[in-house]
Every structure is written in C-alpha cells, then in structure tokens.
Amino acid sequence: MTAREFKTAIYKEMSEMTKALGNPHRLEILDLLAQGPAPVEYISKNTTLSVANASQHLQVLKHAKLVKAERKGKYIYYKLISVDVFNAWSALRNLGFANNGEVNSLLKDYRSKSEEFEMISKSELLEKMEHDDVVVIDVRPEDEYRKGHIKRALSIPEKNLHERLEELSGDIEVVAYCRGPLCLMADEAVNYLNKNGFKAKRLEYGFPEWQESGLPVES
Amino acid sequence: MTAREFKTAIYKEMSEMTKALGNPHRLEILDLLAQGPAPVEYISKNTTLSVANASQHLQVLKHAKLVKAERKGKYIYYKLISVDVFNAWSALRNLGFANNGEVNSLLKDYRSKSEEFEMISKSELLEKMEHDDVVVIDVRPEDEYRKGHIKRALSIPEKNLHERLEELSGDIEVVAYCRGPLCLMADEAVNYLNKNGFKAKRLEYGFPEWQESGLPVES
DNA sequence: ATAACATTCAATAAGTCTATTGAATGTTGT
DNA sequence: ACAACATTCAATAGACTTATTGAATGTTAT
User: Fold this and answer.
1) What is the rounded CA–CA span in Å between residue B178 and residue B150?
2) How many CB atoms neighbour CB B159 within 10 A?
3) Neighbouring-strand partners of residue A154
4) How far is the CA of A11 from the C1' of D22 (A)?
5) Is the CB atom of residue B23 positioned under 7 angstroms from any atom of strand D?
6) Is residue A41's pLDDT more than 70?
7) What is the three-class DSSP state of A136?
8) Nearest-CA distance from A147 to chain B in Å?
9) A87 contacts A208 by C-beta, under 8 angstroms
C-alpha cells in the first residue's frame, strides 16, 4: 500500500462515517438516542418518519458504526455506539451555532417569537441546586426520564404540565430542561410557567450534555 | 412557524453543513487548510484533484460556511472560517479512531508495515523542550512551516531530509511532526532517521492540534 | 490594450441517496 | 402450531452528487 492509497482509503472511511451524519432525519435520531436506547417504533413516533423509513435510517447509522442494535424480546433497541458519537454531533452543532447565520436566525426567530425567557447555564444551576434554591423539572416524555435524569429533578412531561401546576410552589424558581438545545419542550414549558405566575428559566442544553459533563444524574 | 417546522428547518440546516464534510476529498482539503490559508492551485497540487474539481469542492465548503475565500493579487486564498470547523472535524476523526475498526486497521497496517517507531504526546514533548532535551523538526513543505510552526522547530521538509541529515546531531533525540494524525510525512521521516542512527519519535497529532491546544507557536 | 495565468462556470453522464410501497422475517404468548 | 406484532428487505422512481470537459471571467504585469 502506497502513501497515496492509504490516504485515499482512510479519508474514504472517515467520510463514510460523516456521510451517515449528513441527513436531517439521522441527526434528529441521534438526538433521540442520546436520551437512551430506543426501539424503531419509538423513533418513528417521535419524528415524521414511517417505521420502514426509520428502520432504514437506523441501518445506515449501524453500518457507519454510529449505533448498535440489541434485541430485547419483541423490540430491537438501538443505542449510540459510544459517547464519542454524541461528542462529534455536539461539535457539529456548536459549529452551526457559532458560524451559521441561518441556524442562528432560526433559533432566534422561533425563540423570541413567543415570549422571551431566561436561560441558565449548567454551572449556575448546579450552584442553585446545592443551595436548594430551585426546583428542576424534566419535561421530556416520562420514559426518557426513567432512562436517566438530572439528580432530584421531577418528571413533569410538557404535555401534562397544565394539569400538574399545583405540584409546583410559586415561591421557588423553576428550571426546565429537555432533550437538548434543539428541543423545544423546555421552551414551551418555561413560557407556560411564566404566563402562569411562576419564575421559570430554561437550562441551556439538555440532559445528555449535563450527563456528559459529569454532573449528578440518577435513574 | 410551528415547532415541527422549526425542527425540520434546523436539522436540515445542520445536515447541510455536515453533508459538506461527508466527502473524502473535502476532509483532505480541511486538513490542508488547517495548516493555514492556501490558494486553489495549492490544494490541487497536494491532492489528486484537478484545479477545476478542487475549485468545485471549495465552493461546496464555502456555501456550507466552512471556509471563506479572500483574493490576494492573482490568487484566491481559502481558509477555515473559524477554529470550530477544525474542532468539528477533529471530533469526527476521534470518533473514527475510537470506534471504527476499519480506520484502526488501516492505521495499524500502514504504520507497522514499515519499521515500528515511538510516538510522543504533546505534553511529553513540551516538557522535553523546556529542558532542551530534544530537537523538533517540521517536515511539512516549507511554505506551511512559514505560515506557522511549533516554537523553535526547524524546517526540514521530508522531501529534503536525506540531504540535510548533517544539520542534526546524533546525540540528541529528534521529534518530527507534520500536518496531523492522518499525514504520513512525519512517519517517513522518523523511519528514515531511525535507520540512519538517530533516536527519533513522531509527535502524536500535528501542528494544528498543537496550536489549538494553546501550546507555543511562532511564524 | 494584450498576454499570461488563476479561478470559476456550464453541461453532462454516471453514480448515489431517499421515501414509498408491500411482502418477508423473526419473536412472543397462547 | 398460530395470531399478533416489531422490524427488515426488495424494488423502484425521483432527486441529488460527482468528475470531466472546455469555455468564460477576472487580475496582473507589460
């Protein structure tokens, strides 16, 4: 093998991995799988993809060595092959946030169209948690909460928030989080809470990023 | 704009950026541009791409907001739009190193087919440099050295190494570096030096990674 | 102005990717 | 063994991507 053949082969291999990430649906799937293992049907239900199509996209991710499949009874659970996959997608996302005007105006437009609200960083939240100055709510669907969540967070799925307001005291600040920076469930929750007399903020990023930073989690 | 439209749009935008990275030639171009700005012709000469084809790939990177073009006289210099681009590509590369068996066996096969040699990490090298225990040689083409290099490194392009051996003392350890972990110039240099009675090691990674770690550089 | 030269553009053919079907496979619980 | 159900497979049409040409554009130096 000559040096040139080596280069050709290795960049090809790297680009095949990257190509598998280069599709909007597959990036969305990665954000779902970052919450924990999930079967094909769950992916399908949480996106606009048909089951067959979700399955095909998952195969592409599997062949690119980005996810692996494990059967448990009737269901086949897909999961990220390692945290490096999430880290690579995070780096790509940060690149978009940092340099892509389209990405930024989409984020700004959508977020400030509804009410404006405050964000809180991971370290700020951690400090408030240590002083018991805050209630943290996980507004993802309950099964994602069960797969793992921020320590001492309450599970109040965004869907059910309106009927569960009485579980929250109006005196203490509320911080809501969800799947990550591209997920809007926490945004909706914070807006709803602020309209109803609470003092609510959105955690920047979501559960996967909190976990990846080594901050306290439980399941 | 509904939540679903937002998601569709933002993942589409992110995937368009990612798609631009999903091609072997464009990844190779990124590794070249990580050494510093370069005109189309330089990219063409250092790859297997025709000028027209290199230009087209650069346009793709430009539309994806990954590189920008700046004319200086007759030449148009392309450069990475920000260090986030390099970081994203690094994260992808690390993902390949960590999880892709094909990538690993390519690296191992090629590297151990020739002689085996030792690697040295950035921090180990830094320490040796502080004790003047080492000569660092930059084996990239000289114009890449001129755009920026490790502090106090000598420029001895791999091409010219055989005719410049007398510039190196046999008593002191030599560390060679080049463009990065997928570049073979330092490998060749280290093998050649070891065959000729020197004690040589290869720096893990290359100049862009050294610079990105905030270690001492000059130009 | 003109020649020299770096780069881009336009057209094209071959190859690759995607969503949609409906049928096939594999597992569970009876 | 069978029904129920989760997932995959195979075929296909339409949409993109890529490398190759050769011509067009834009800049510099004379």
Assistant:
1) 10
2) 14
3) A137
4) 30
5) yes
6) yes
7) strand
8) 23
9) no
DSSP E strands, chain A:
38-39, 67-72, 75-80, 118-120, 134-138, 149-150, 154-155, 173-177, 200-203, 217-218
Name the nucleotide with the smallest C1'–CA separation from B39.
Answer: C6
Closest CA to B32 of B140, B111, B121, B119: B140
Strands (E), chain B: 38-39, 67-72, 75-80, 118-120, 134-138, 149-150, 154-155, 173-177, 200-203, 217-218
Residue type, B117: F
CA B58 to C1' C5, in angstroms, rounded, equals 20
> A75 near A45, Cβ under 8 Å?
no
Query: Is the CB of B84 less than 8 angstroms away from the CB of A106?
Result: no
Residues A103-133 have pLDDT tens digits of 999 988 887 665 688 999 999 999 999 998 8
How far apart CA A103 and CA B73 sit, in angstroms, is 33
Q: For chain A, which domains are there?
A: 3-85 (1.10.10.10), 110-218 (3.40.250.10)
Catalytic residue among B153, B168, B178, B189: B178
Tokens representing residue B56 in the block = 């087209």
Tokens of A135: 């209630």
A92's CB contacts (< 8 A; 6+ apart) are A21, B14, B17, B18, B21, B88, B91, B92
Report the C-alpha gap between B127 and B67 in whole angstroms. 35
Pairing of strands B75-80, B67-72: antiparallel
The A 120-159 residues near strand D by Cβ under 7 Å are none
pLDDT tens-place string over residues A148-186: 999 999 999 999 999 999 999 878 999 999 999 999 999
The DSSP annotation for B2-13 comes to: -HHHHHHHHHHH
* CA distance between the termini of chain B: 50
Which residues, listed in sequence order, are joined to residue B138 by a DSSP beta bridge? B155, B177
Q: Express the helix, strand and coil content of chain B in percent, nearest 5 each.
A: 55, 15, 30
**CA separation for the pair A195, A41 (Å, rounded):** 35
Overall average pLDDT of the B115-139 stretch: 93
**Mean pLDDT for chain A overall:** 94
Rounded to two decimals, the ipTM of the complex is: 0.94
